[in-house]
Amino acid sequence: MAPGEFERIRWLRAAAEGAPVRGGSPAGRLFLGIGDDAALWSPPSGEAAVLTVDAQVEGIHFRRGWLTAGQIGARAVATSASDLAAMAARPGGVLLAMFLPPDTEERFFRDLFRGAANEARRAGLAILGGNLSAGPLAVSVTSVGSARPERAVGRRGARPGDGAYVTGWPGRSRIGRALLEAAGGEPRASRRARGACLRAFRTPRARLAEARYLAERVRPRSMIDVSDGVAQDLGHLLEEGSRRGRALGAVLELSRLAALLEEGGCGALARSLGLDPSATALSGGEDYELLLSAEPEIADRAAREFRRRFGIPLTRIGTVVPQPGLRSEDGRPIHPPGFDHFGE
Amino acid sequence: MAPGEFERIRWLRAAAEGAPVRGGSPAGRLFLGIGDDAALWSPPSGEAAVLTVDAQVEGIHFRRGWLTAGQIGARAVATSASDLAAMAARPGGVLLAMFLPPDTEERFFRDLFRGAANEARRAGLAILGGNLSAGPLAVSVTSVGSARPERAVGRRGARPGDGAYVTGWPGRSRIGRALLEAAGGEPRASRRARGACLRAFRTPRARLAEARYLAERVRPRSMIDVSDGVAQDLGHLLEEGSRRGRALGAVLELSRLAALLEEGGCGALARSLGLDPSATALSGGEDYELLLSAEPEIADRAAREFRRRFGIPLTRIGTVVPQPGLRSEDGRPIHPPGFDHFGE
User: Fold this and answer.
1) Which residues from chain B sit within 8 angstroms of residue A135, using beta carbons?
2) Which residues of B touch A37 (CB under 8 A)?
3) Could you give the CA distance from residue A58 to residue A104 in angstroms, rounded to a whole number?
4) Are B131 and A53 inside 8 Å of each other by CB?
5) What percent of chain B has pLDDT over 90?
6) What's the gap in Å between the CA of A282 and the closest CA on chain B?
7) What is the DSSP string of B131-199?
8) Does B158 touch chain A (CB under 8 A)?
9) Residues A202, A71: contact at Cβ < 8 Å?
10) Are the beta carbons of B37 and A6 separated by less than 8 Å?
């Protein structure tokens, strides 16, 4: 370990101890946090630990000019915690493994950590520990939460007749990324649409509270977070639901997905960037919205209250059917890019 | 996600499901493993989850010519699980975050994972999940275990009069690394010593069973695993034990540390590489042995049985004293390289 790393660990420890989570304390009980060889944490009585890891790597998930140091840290936490949301788990804590090039300035390092710590606090996650290593810029975040095993919402469980629902506005993140890729040459567009799409890419939020609300009110049969795009991730749900010898597919209401993207002017922005709004809503990844299948009667009833409570829509985008593959309402097969793995 | 990544995840899932851990099942109960958004795992009744993360990065912790793909994977698991051992935790499972350059061959990827999975199985850890990302070659491993909160052995707790003990042969890993760095120009040396030092560097083992034995029989007051070197890591124990207004230090029996390294001819090998055996035993890192402080009467009694049971020595290397700093038996201050942070 380089001598400077001890100083950084000392700073981290003080900074982490000074970062209480929102609402007092996270789920479970923390016996021992940062500063020992490992953290000691207990899920609440009757609940199991929910564990997941995700990473953000420079040059793959972001470029340095696209995000501030703080946004890199925050995005790493949010995208990892999004997998807790997908299980409808309660937030517990995070372990942050940071990889920093040797020439990383102190300020960049601290801003990165503060961004991660602030996002953790916002999500109700304690800083349980971490690791600091030299290496190409990357952050790997292990998120820990808790759920009653019989209540956690997995990927399996979709049934024919389920409605397929999505939260928020899928596709915005892809448009935000396209804006950053076109930097300098980007088209004129409504400031509101630009801001919404850039935020979707730069500062996604794990839909933790939304997921628990849905688990309670809508009782999803299956749920996933949208990291690879609505079509891909719906494919995962259908594939998992297809075990036991019955193949599942879905009929998608593409017009509803496209209409979501039109909200706030993002459809026009997509077109001005040369992106097809429908295809972007279907295949654009990294939205970290929730995608679920549920009994339509129950979900439709909850949608209005959901929007009032969380300020984001819950939209039915299709129906699970007992024939494999994705089709549009008029029966045409949908083959979104990158969707080659589905229905094998 | 690149299309090839789905194939890899599918392969990983099948490979992980076919990898039961040693002795049937790990501590705790696994409800849901690889293949969903997150794993669901419960520590055994009355125990808390023990959580830690560590990483191995190409160019920092290893060079590709030094380790096979399988050794890279195994080393990443062992060095992470070593922090579970340092807490005397029972092994539960691991989450593997792998970063692979885009041109990584399928065989390298599979060997890397198999090496990690085999090491996990050997250590009694289930594969709980993971993440696959493009990026420079690195593996970040989150290890999860369990312990009764009142029984876990932390870094705090050292007291004046405690003996300082170490398992195994600290310094061997540093000599192994020096051998690899000198590749081609390495000196002639006993094959046995070469093999022992290369193994110490390439395939360290987390001392999980040893740690639980020590926790039960020796009741260490404080414990840590030797990743930064005996002097540095002893410094951590003394620093943590120094809270509450009393500063701790230690008197070290350097001759015993050096004698450990002479076992099997490693001292001669060190000298032939231009390394001072005493300094190497004191400052060489990455041994992943256990370093603990305990009541000498109890620990001394357990040492013989420990060696018989595990095939490695448990050696007293010094005494905790109520004066800060490290001294040798004849009273001279010891200032090992990199030890600048201690006694501030």
Assistant:
1) 55, 57, 59-60, 136, 138
2) 52, 83, 86-87, 154-155, 224-225
3) 13
4) yes
5) 78
6) 15
7) EEEESSSEEEEEEEEEE-TTT---S----TTPEEEEES-TTHHHHHHHHHHTTTSPPP--HHHHHHHHH
8) no
9) yes
10) no
b/e for B19-37, b at 16 or more Cβ within 10 A?
bebeeeebbbebbbbbbbb
Q: Which residues of A touch B288 (CB under 8 A)?
A: none
Say how many CB pairs under 8 Å bridge A and B: 209
Sequential pLDDT tens for chain A (344 residues):
555 777 888 888 888 876 555 555 667 777 777 778 899 999 999 999 999 999 999 999 999 999 999 999 999 999 999 999 999 999 999 999 999 999 999 999 999 999 999 999 999 999 999 999 999 999 999 999 999 998 889 888 999 999 999 999 999 999 999 999 987 666 667 889 999 999 999 999 999 999 999 999 999 999 999 999 999 999 999 998 886 678 999 999 999 999 999 987 899 999 999 999 999 999 999 999 999 999 999 999 999 999 999 999 999 999 999 999 999 999 999 986 554 433 33
Which among A53, A79, A291 is the top mutation candidate for probing chain B, defined by the most B β-carbons within 10 Å of its own β-carbon?
A53
Rounded to two decimals, what is the model's pTM?
0.93
Q: Which of B1, B87, B338 sits opposite A37 (nearest CB)?
A: B87
Give the length of chain A. 344
Q: State how beta strands A126-134 and A90-100 pair.
A: parallel
- Candidates A6, A8, A37, A45, partner chain B, best to mutate (most B CBs within 10 A): A37
CA atoms of A93 and B278, how far apart (whole Å): 42
Q: Which amino acid is at A273?
A: L
Q: What is the 3-state secondary structure (H, E, C) of B237-292?
A: HHHHHCCCCCCCEEEECHHHHHHHHHHHHHHHHHHHCCCCHHHHHHHCCCCCCEEE
Q: Which residues pair with A321 in a beta bridge?
A: A249
Tokens for B306, please give them: 């420990």
Please give the helix or strand (H or E) that residue A13 lies within, else none: helix A3-17
DSSP B72-122: HHHHHHHHHHHHHHHTTPEEEEEEEEEEE-TT--HHHHHHHHHHHHHHHHH
User: Would the ipTM clear 0.85, i.e. be above it?
Assistant: yes
**Residue among A137, A152, A5 nearest A71 (CA):** A137
Spatial separation of the C-alpha atoms in residues A317 and A257, rounded to whole Å:
6
Nearest one of A81, A96, A103 to A15, comparing CA atoms: A96
Nearest to A240 by CA among B226, B75, B34: B34
Amino acid at residue number B240: E
Q: Is A87 helix (H, G, I), strand (E, B) or coil?
A: coil
Q: Is residue A285 within 8 Å of A200, Cβ to Cβ?
A: no
Which chain A residue has the Cα nearest residue B129?
Answer: A52
- The Cα angle at residue A225 between residues A221 and A228, in degrees rounded to 5: 125
Backbone angles phi, psi at B125, to 5 degrees: -110, 130
Tell me the pairing of strands B29-32 and B39-42: antiparallel
C-alpha A127/C-alpha B247 separation (Å) is 28
| Number of Cα atoms under 13 Å in the Cβ half of residue B232 | 25
Contact A113, A12 (CB under 8 A): yes
Closest to B142 in 3D by CA, of B255, B253, B52, B233: B52
Verify whether the Cβ–Cβ distance A40 to B142 is below 8 Å: no
Q: Decide if A311 touches B, using CB distance below 8 A.
A: no
